[in-house]
Specification:
The structure is a homotetramer. By secondary structure, chain A is α+β, with helices and mostly antiparallel strands. Chain A has a single domain, classed as Hotdog Thioesterase (Thiol Ester Dehydrase, Chain A, Roll), CATH 3.10.129. Helix content of chain A is 25%, strand content 35%. The first copy, chain A, contains 3 helices and 6 strands, in the order ααββαββββ. The first copy, chain A, has a 6-stranded antiparallel beta sheet. The longest helix of chain A is centred in the N-terminal third of the chain and has 17 residues. Chains in contact: A-B, A-C, A-D, B-C, B-D, C-D. Chains A and D meet through β5 and β6 of A and β5 and β6 of D. β3 of chain C pairs antiparallel with β3 of chain D.
Chain lengths: 153, 153, 153, 153
């Protein structure tokens, strides 16, 4: 069995594996801050090409940040998890130049499904959106066994 | 009062005004097919830069198509409407090269709020996602009066 | 294979089987109006014991009507389906004495899951709430084989 | 201005005022455990008349517990708040005799709206459901001024 500290290492490796092929998150400039089992934090800056004529960020871009952070948390246990459905509530507009931080927390996880809440806050620590993601989990590792650090096996 | 045919013209003008400044929808290649009062149809092709390593479309991109189509329907009455919250359920994956069509339908509208359902289908007419959007409406025209065709006033 | 007319009979039998043990729906006075494959209509009157001090119906009671109608539609194909998650938007208050009608429509159904939209309207045909239900389907009949009319097999 | 300790007293008075006329919560046996500004905890036992033929609790009853707890938290600031929309995800079935506890937490609150997450757990501390409520706030006190303890004014 892996020790607690190793679970954190594994969660970070899962995050890296997930983002390696996620061109959308890369194009949006989403940066991983921290991933631990069941938790993830990521950031995104609201660029010129993410806003409408009133300099207000497109809802789909805020959603994408929350969704990617949810995916990091849901896949942090090294079991492939994908989104079944998501819910987002917008509380305040995000403006051009805002630095957004999304924090995902696992509310519950069973063998086949999980539920996550993501808060998106701006640089003034004001909540921009609250997001809820439901995941479906496959009993299949995200990182194949040979990908794990040998010393831990 | 505007005649029914004119409401359709107005709905299209609202759509054009909305998309003129929506760089996100333009960058995603979202195309308006038709907008009538309370309804909107738009399309998007799943490009290489919208998929992950398994050639499956990022949820945030499907959400963005649904969200933009919802915005077109919600703003079709020439009253500024913005999203308060959205809900999306994924039914089937969208793959690289898929041609997605989103159809938004107004379920109900009161003076201050509206509720819209959006179906996203692929080129095989299979449902990829079902989306639900809640709008908040301001008593403020999207197109200023001088922007309307004079002959209709 | 069952003929179309027989699918309607089966959908009704599923509805009866489902409601036989649903004491909550019975206690709330929920009445089935019609069930066909993927569709269901049911009614409920807002009683004295369903309202708060301002004679406005408790949200949980409107939800329960929508939820039961969703269950009827989701189980209409004679495969056990249960709710994974639901979303409700309130558009107008329901008042004491209002006669509510809920109509559930199947938006999509795959082998393992389904998506349903339910509209709740009052006696003036005004929308009180819009509901969205996600079902999980088991490959197990709701009505055991001997329960089906023999002549149809 | 009220001191912190008084805000807790006020939150409890709001809870009592809200539940005084809430016959649905009373009929369901929902008990308030604690209410502080932005937070609420309440309990409900799954009775015989809340289950179906398989002794599994009706989703509408779990929703009603979560919804009432959300209402307690949303109204804890002595400003009338009502539900605009709610979202519930079911994680595990609730069985006859289960003692459910719902805990509502305010995620964010602006002048006109608020967002709340409610966890519903059973007596084994397993999550049964996760609920998300969106409130609309009126600038109107729940308890008229003469109802407040005089010594605090």
């Amino acid at each position: 069995m892996l020790k607690p500290v190793d679970k954190n290492v594994l969660a970070q490796q899962c995050a890296e594996a997930l983002f390696r092929h996620d061109r959308v998150s890369a194009d949006l400039g989403i940066c991983i801050v921290e991933v631990t089992p069941g938790h993830a934090t990521a950031t995104m800056e609201v660029r010129n090409d993410m806003v409408n004529g009133f300099d207000i960020c497109h809802g789909g871009m805020i959603f994408s940040l929350a969704d990617s952070t949810f995916a990091l948390a849901a896949n942090s246990h090294n079991l492939v998890a994908y989104a079944m459905g998501c819910h987002i509530e917008y509380l305040r507009p995000a403006l051009k130049g805002d630095k957004l931080t999304a924090q995902a927390t696992e509310m519950s996880r069973t063998r086949h499904t999980g539920s996550y809440v993501v808060s998106v806050i701006n640089q003034h620590e004001k909540t921009v959106a609250v997001f809820h993601g439901r995941s479906s989990t496959r009993e299949e590792p995200l990182i194949p066994k040979q990908g794990l650090p040998e010393s831990h096996e």
